[in-house]
Design a protein that fits this description.
This protein has 323 residues and is mainly alpha-helical. It is built from 14 helices and four strands. It has helices at residues 14-22, 35-45, 49-58, 68-75, 99-113, 150-167, 184-191, 201-207, 214-231, 239-256, 264-280, 291-296, 298-307, 314-322; strands at residues 77-80, 95-98, 126-130, 139-143.
């Protein structure tokens, strides 16, 4: 079985793999590698799941590597060690800490120690990790993907924490009912503007927003709330004026926050809503035929199909529901 071409990776020999593992200061390499050794090998070769599985099969007769699932579980933990936690050189005791908890602790330290320097930071956030009980395990550099700017990532994280603590609103967390906690009701609650003296969603977001971005943040937040209310109403809409507002907000996001990640949902809202209202609903807001309105109608449709329609044919069933 060929793993890949010789020009791409020259690790088709057991000797080469052992030479790479030796760089990790593991000491003598036996015929059965540990998870730390395998993780170091995988990161040194810069290979993913598929190539690791192929490599494991290729070296099976000479070196036994742990399964990928076991390796992935091991890589999701970080072992922090110190001489205090070491029984002796042969039997070390470490403390397992998840990446999420470590990132939480790291961000809190950044916010406490260098709060004034965060807005001026411009380099991508990187977190270098050395796992293994003796610190010589897999060395990995985790780069931030969604928010390339360190100030954006830290402010985003701290903003979510403030909102959760003060408004009891949980955003962008996996939900037990499927999807995430960012539902229509949550978004509506976040975009509702209260009096200037009230501590609403925007108030807490602005507390962690650098001063040069606050005017843009207020404008975007206010206009998004207005656009959503228009979109979910049933009134006649001036689509040309709405298209101009959506275009201006889109440009404000791209110009004021060039690192921002524009989600597909936000793109559809700002780029397609005026067109949909004008062409498909005779210039009126979508209200019940919007995506949220249709989802809210599911319970009624299920009740109709169960009790009030014919069940002889599928076509007749749907005709009785929608006609």
């Amino acid at each position: 079985m060929m793993l890949c071409s010789q020009t791409e990776y020259d690790f088709t020999t057991t000797k080469f793999c052992k030479e790479i593992i030796a760089k990790g200061s593991f000491g003598p390499v036996c015929n059965k590698l540990t998870c730390d050794q395998s993780a170091f090998l995988m990161d040194s070769l810069e290979i993913g799941k598929k190539k690791y599985i192929d490599l494991r099969c290729l070296l099976l007769s000479d070196v036994q590597l742990p399964g990928y699932n076991r390796l992935a579980t091991h890589r999701s933990q970080i072992c922090l060690t110190n001489d205090i936690f070491s029984v002796d050189r042969e039997h070390r005791v470490g403390i397992a800490v998840s990446y999420k908890k470590l990132l939480t602790h790291t961000v809190n330290r950044i916010l406490t120690a260098s709060a004034n320097e965060i807005p001026s930071a411009s380099n991508p956030k990187k977190m270098r990790i050395s796992d293994g009980l003796d610190g010589s395990g897999s060395h990995r550099v985790h780069k931030q993907a969604a928010h390339p700017n360190i100030s954006t990532n830290v402010l985003f994280y701290s903003g979510l924490s403030l909102i959760k603590d003060n408004l009891n609103i949980i955003i962008d967390i996996p939900s037990t009912q499927g999807g995430t906690t960012t539902t229509g009701n949550v978004v509506r609650r976040c975009l509702i503007r209260k009096d200037d003296n009230d501590q609403d969603f925007l108030y807490w977001v602005l507390t962690v927003t650098p001063s040069e971005f606050k005017p843009h943040r207020i404008e975007i937040h206010t206009c998004l709330g207005a656009i959503l209310r228009i979109y979910n109403s049933s009134r006649r809409v001036d689509t040309e004026e709405l298209a101009l507002v959506c275009s201006n907000i889109y440009q404000s996001i791209l110009c004021a926050f060039p690192w921002a990640n524009v989600s597909p949902t936000l793109h559809k809202l700002l780029a397609r809503v005026p067109e949909i209202i004008s062409m498909f609903n005779d210039g009126h807001g979508l209200e019940n035929i919007s995506e949220e309105g249709l989802e809210a109608s599911n319970k009624y449709i299920r009740r109709y199909r169960d009790r009030l329609v014919r069940k002889l044919l599928f076509e007749e069933n749907l005709k009785d529901v929608f006609v």
